[in-house]
Amino acid sequence: MIKLLASLFIIGASVLLGNEYANNLVNRPRYIRFFKNALQILEAEIVYSQETIKESLHAVSNQIPEPLATLFQHIADDIQHDQDELYPIWEKHIHVFYRSNPIQVDDKEILLQFGRTLGQHDVIQQQKYIRLAINHLERTLKEADDKHHRYGKMARSVGVLIGIFIVLLLL
Amino acid sequence: MDSVLQILPDHISKQISVFQKKEKLDIQEIRLRVNRPVELNDGKRVFWLRERSFTEADAKMFLNKISNFSLYRLEEELRHGFITIQGGHRIGISGDVIVDNKQVKAIHHVSSFNIRIAKPHFGMVQPFLHYLKDETIHNTLIIGPPQAGKTTFLRDIANYCASSKLELKTAIVDERSEICASINGVPQHLLAPRIDVLDRCPKAEGMMMLIRSMSPDVIVVDEIGNNRDVEAIDEVIHAGVQLICTVHGRSFRDITRRPTIQQLMQKSIFQRFIILSNHEVVEILNEKGESLYHGENVRTTPVSKFEL
Predict the structure, then answer these.
(1) Cα(B284)–Cα(B291) distance, integer angstroms
(2) Rounded distance between C-alpha atoms, residue A87 and residue A84, angstroms
(3) pLDDT single digits (tens) B147-171
(4) CA–CA distance, B48 with B31 (Å, rounded to integer)
(5) Is B2-116 assigned to CATH 3.30.310.180?
(6) Contact status, residue B31 vs residue B1, Cβ threshold 8 Å
């Protein structure tokens, strides 16, 4: 009886792990797309409306879905006059986001690189940096999409199978 | 002053606060230069804060703070060479200039900042008002050397014209943002209700625009000088609008020798001339050049601007 329960538990756990991995595969391209949208909105705010970074980030957070909305909201809220630089704020929040969401190191690096340029240049230069970040995201998006197509369906079944395999080994 | 201290790098604003407690100084300028100590002056004396110099990193940070971390918003300002901040303080900048088509495109690597603390003095005009108006305000020319208080006086008159006492529609062409220190077109210094400002607009064009669009009673401009200004003034006067302006010069005689001003004199456009020196009214003349008022105890030797 105990054996049966333990087996079920092991299979259940590996199914969950498989699902989690599969979800990550689905969500990563989604989030990268959101980031791309966010940067495009940011570009419009900066180039056409000439709003400050704080106002621009607020505008972005109003126009994109969660959890990015909260991310940008938090960054905007943290920009105060007594702050010396913008980058540390950006860095902190991107790190937190990275830890709890299915984006990868590559995506994080692109965002951090972009953060260094934010608000440091004239309009034309700033626009170039935004475009550059969008291009880079495009690349990781393609990679994430590929991975999703290749492993997305497999991940779930592999989860179940590995669970059964472990149980068989232990029997 | 607090709004300035807020955006300065921490170590500098601390030094300034400590210094101010020690030396009751009426700071006019705070000058920051990369790799040099911070300079404070009150227009007459110079003080140095030698504890820690202003660094390149500080300069970058300072620009970031001025622009709310959005340097792209300063493009226009970096081209003109000065930035107006909250409270009407003006920050002059110099550094590496980028030129495009023989025109200054921007200042890169800003190495010097000159923060001019704005303290609008009102009430300077009050004692002389009865010389300047009867039914309405006279066409007035304010004459004085640099730093004599011309702009301050002009601002004060503008404020008075637009206030509830005279209730004249007062329009200002503020070519260098000096009279009103506008931010996003909203004047920071002038609070009277009937004021309209054309900020950073060339004077001659500005005056014509105002007549066409704002139906002013009085137009106020700073530092007239070239032929186009004179032509525009001619138009203004004949449009039935009163005019108050300033011109560089030490005395009434001085300016009557200037060819452009001579034209205006021949047409006897101005009814009052006010001669200023060291923030004091030296003399007020009428349209014939006769003295209406002569200041007493007027210092004739100008105090040197900086005693280094």
Answers:
(1) 6
(2) 9
(3) 788 888 888 888 888 888 788 899 9
(4) 10
(5) no
(6) no
Enumerate chain B positions whose Cβ falls within 8 A of a Cβ in A.
6-7, 9-10, 61, 64-65, 67-73, 75, 106
Residue of B nearest to A122 (CA): B72
Is A123 in Cβ contact with B65 (below 8 Å)?
Answer: no
Nearest to B213 by CA among B173, B182, B177, B270: B173
Please give, rounded to a whole number of angstroms, the shortest distance from the CA of A83 to a CA of chain B. 8
Residues of B in Cβ contact (< 8 Å) with A115: none
Count of domains forming chain A? 1
Residues 6+ apart with CB under 8 A from A49: A56
Considering only CA atoms, which of B276, B296, B293 is closest in space to residue B285? B293
For the beta carbon of residue B131, count every other beta carbon within 10 angstroms: 18
Q: Using alpha carbons, list the distances in angstroms from residue B209 to B150, B170, B223, B225.
A: 24, 14, 18, 19
CATH architecture of residue range(s) B126-294: 3-Layer(aba) Sandwich (3.40)
- Residues B225-268 have pLDDT tens digits of 888 888 888 888 888 899 999 998 888 888 888 888 888 888 88
Size of interface A-B (CB pairs under 8 A): 53
ipTM of the complex: 0.71
Contact A86 B69 (CB under 8 A): yes
Which residues lie closer than 8 Å to B144 by C-beta, 6 or more apart? B150, B246, B248, B249, B250, B275, B276, B277
d(CA B42, CA B116): 10
B102-118 pLDDT, tens digit each: 888 778 888 899 988 87
| Domain assignment of residue A39, given as a range | 2-170
Report pLDDT for A82: 67
Using DSSP bridges, classify how beta strands B272-277 and B280-286 pair: parallel, antiparallel or unpaired.
antiparallel
Q: On the CB side of B181, how many CA atoms lie within 13 Å of its CA?
A: 22
Beta-carbon separation of A52 and B70 below 8 A: yes
Task: Tell me how long chain A is.
Answer: 171
Which tokens belong to B210?
């105002």
The token pair that represents B3 in the structure block? 């709004």
CB B134 within 8 A of CB B287: no
CB within 8 Å: A54 and B69 = yes
User: What average pLDDT does the structure give for chain A?
Assistant: 86
- The answer to whether residue A53 neighbours chain B at the CB level (below 8 Å) is yes
B64–A84 C-beta distance less than 8 A: yes
Chain A residue numbers touching B13 (CB-CB < 8 A)? none
Number of helices (H), then strands (E), in chain B: 10, 14
